[in-house]
């Protein structure tokens, strides 16, 4: 399926007008960045890069697509003909997936003719705005869980295809598993799940349901114990499965106190290795509030897939430089007071102390400074002359993310609202 | 592309266990409803029905899908074999698209064997939770715009495929156009757009840019005037296009005062018919705040595609009745204090006064009351014996939505936080 129409109408009308006066062929640099982090956030997490590069490969105006544009009169024949031959032949650099970003970090830099770069605006923004919002929320949850596994189970609360991307982004940020089977197939993410309340209600008794589940899925399964009375369900569960039951799940009520009572009850029944998984509208704050409770895993749904209050990242895609008639690259920027941007093609590095702690996000124009060995350069090549040169796996991104988080000063892990943990410094 | 894996892992493990003990074949009724509206909202808008019915038709476990489930050991061979033959053969009723809903409205009722209905849970929830959240936000914006057109332009701020669905949902709720070209192709929604700041910055001068745009797109185009200085841009725009210029767009600054100044300036230049379109992080409150300003259209992005603070609808999908061994239908419900539900297959009607004003949402179990002519029955058949019988167009949904909104008491249109405008009454 082509991704070429996941594009705003105005990109093609701009293209038409620029083809007509010849400026479409001016060499241009577009930059994707966030003016600010979502309110109160300490850092952002880049996710979606792999999907973005896949989507770029599928960005083709095939005959059906061109026919539709022509028939609907979206753009003129000259533009339709140009689009029919569209191939991106430029360069793309970016912060690799899993990396952290801060206000004004040049998360993606796209260089080519105006024509070939302008039409990618909406697609690139959609992918990165969504996936990074999810990963940024997920990273806070993983931090709050402090080593206990987080299970992604929010598919039902978001668009059915966004759900697959959300599972992927959560995995980049350290989630252990997802409930989403398509995320398992498409992205190789481990999937997990056992049963819902409907399974218990389907049966004449809770004991019948637990017996059926254990018989079919084994004693390692997770029994959901809050359909009727939790204490009775735990007793029944251990009676049916024996003390080797894998886990129980609690999906309602006051989770910290319930977890303690159930832990005591399980231990009293000899089920000392039976894990307790909690779900029920958890977010990073609820997870942190369960740190002292005997909980072995967190299932997170709604708050994950909606970015826990920040469902989009606020990335914009701006022309920052373009050639003049003499092919010299001219920095350009909008002047509006509340939406100003900085012109010019950027470099970016994370300034680090000699002991490896991140100290600042440094962004500049022109030649990057000599790397003294402590700092870390952030932009890597994704596409060179139209050819994709970046093929990181999800596990690469996951490892990179863990390393980038480990570099941050301790204040990064505060869940309370505050300023970005690193200041962005412009050097010119 | 199959939709069958847009499904949570646990649906298939439940299926496996229920196939093993025979309960999978018990006749069952699932209900999709919201326990509450998003905080402060007066009503909700159902959207996504058409997409849901399309997705149901594509819900097939094709050989590749079954092979993946088998290879990954998601479920056992018996279950894989059953899934390979999967066809939904049951019945679905629901609130048709565009209709309003309230807490506990039975928005969708799915009846069939447990096996065939349980596997649809995640897909159905994903579609309706997303699309209804967008439509519910869009309806408030359309109401606040009070007849002025709203333009959907949020694609870049949400997942690239969710963007297409968001444009569709906004159209159901009364938006005039979308920027999203795929929404134009897939759903036939009118698309619109002209140019961005990058087009102005591409050119050596703003005059060059406007000249190129007007030459290519005609004097009816919309010029974006806030790249540098708005007053100068308006003067240049009229100088280039003449007083017949279609529209100008302002995307930053204090919009009410800017709109007034620009209107005066345009009128002074003889451009009395040139429209003023405003964009820049608008939501329903900002739109309402512009009611007295000389504005001719609102472009809405981020707040629309993120549901204006409520990015998901909170719909759940619950087993409410199932057969016992004797095939009698038994109402069932979870007992948990904070997540209780009401068992039994429901009917639903909107109680209306003799003058046609909606007064209450009435939901009951058993035989529906005799319709006195004022009330309106809400559930319509979507699928009968596995065959889709509902084929409403988007324009049908749009007209239905407008009619349902017109029925509401005036308090529905308050944008301030409050209670649902209709009380939901249970009758048994």
From TrEMBL, chains A, B:
Xref: InterPro entries: Aldolase_TIM (IPR013785), NAPRTase_N (IPR040727), Nic_PRibTrfase-Fam (IPR007229), Nic_PRibTrfase_pncB (IPR006405), Nicotinate_pribotase-like_C (IPR036068)
GO biological process, one term: NAD+ biosynthetic process via the salvage pathway
GO CC terms, sorted: cytosol
Enzyme class name: ligase
Enzyme Commission no: 6.3.4.21
Residues passing through the membrane, by range: none
Keywords: Glycosyltransferase, Ligase, Phosphoprotein, Pyridine nucleotide biosynthesis, Transferase
Catalytic activity entry: 5-phospho-alpha-D-ribose 1-diphosphate + nicotinate + ATP + H2O = nicotinate beta-D-ribonucleotide + ADP + phosphate + diphosphate
Chain ranges of the Nicotinate phosphoribosyltransferase N-terminal domain: 5-129
Superkingdom to which the source organism belongs: Bacteria
NCBIfam families, per the entry: NAPRTase_put, PRK09243.1-5, PRK12484.1
Family: Belongs to the NAPRTase family.
Stated role: Catalyzes the first step in the biosynthesis of NAD from nicotinic acid, the ATP-dependent synthesis of beta-nicotinate D-ribonucleotide from nicotinate and 5-phospho-D-ribose 1-phosphate.
The name this protein goes by in its record: Nicotinate phosphoribosyltransferase
Species, as recorded: Aeromicrobium erythreum
């Amino acid at each position: 399926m082509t991704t070429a129409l996941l594009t705003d109408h105005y990109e093609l009308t701009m293209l038409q007008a620029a083809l007509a006066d010849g400026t479409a062929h001016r060499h241009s640099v577009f930059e994707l960045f966030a003016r600010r982090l979502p309110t109160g956030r300490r850092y952002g997490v880049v996710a979606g890069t792999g999907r973005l590069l896949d989507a770029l490969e599928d960005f083709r105006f095939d005959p059906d697509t061109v026919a539709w544009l022509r028939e609907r009169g979206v753009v003129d024949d000259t533009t339709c003909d140009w689009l029919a031959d569209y191939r991106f032949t430029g360069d793309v650099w970016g912060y690799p997936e899993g990396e952290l970003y801060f206000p004004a970090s040049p998360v993606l830099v796209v260089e080519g003719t105006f024509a070939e770069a302008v039409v990618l605006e909406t697609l690139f923004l959609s992918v990165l705005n969504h996936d990074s919002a999810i990963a940024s929320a997920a990273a806070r949850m993983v931090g709050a869980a402090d080593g206990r596994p987080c299970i992604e189970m929010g598919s039902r609360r978001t668009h059915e295809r966004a759900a697959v991307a959300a599972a992927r982004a959560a995995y980049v940020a350290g989630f252990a598993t997802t409930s989403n089977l398509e995320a398992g197939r498409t992205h190789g993410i481990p999937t997990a799940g056992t049963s819902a309340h409907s399974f218990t209600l389907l049966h004449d008794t809770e004991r019948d349901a637990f017996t059926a589940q254990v018989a079919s899925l084994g004693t390692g399964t997770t029994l959901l114990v809050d359909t009727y009375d939790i204490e009775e369900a735990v007793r029944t569960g251990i009676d049916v499965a024996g003390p080797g039951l894998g886990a129980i799940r609690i999906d309602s009520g006051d989770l910290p106190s319930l977890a303690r009572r159930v832990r005591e009850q399980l231990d009293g029944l000899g089920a000392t290795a039976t894990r307790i998984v909690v779900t029920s509208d958890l977010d990073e704050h609820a997870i942190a509030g369960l740190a002292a409770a005997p909980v072995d895993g967190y299932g997170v749904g709604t708050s994950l897939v909606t970015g826990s209050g920040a469902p989009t990242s606020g990335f914009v895609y701006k022309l920052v430089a373009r050639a003049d008639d003499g092919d010299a690259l001219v920095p350009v920027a909008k002047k509006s007071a509340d939406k100003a941007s900085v012109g010019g093609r950027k470099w970016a590095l994370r300034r680090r102390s000699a002991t490896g702690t991140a100290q600042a996000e440094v962004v500049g124009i022109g030649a990057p400074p000599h790397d003294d060995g402590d700092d870390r350069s952030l932009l890597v090549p994704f596409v060179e002359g139209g050819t994709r040169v970046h093929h990181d796996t999800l596990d690469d991104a996951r490892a990179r993310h863990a390393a980038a988080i480990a570099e941050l000063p301790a204040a990064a892990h505060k869940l309370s609202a505050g300023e970005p943990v690193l200041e962005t410094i412009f050097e010119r």
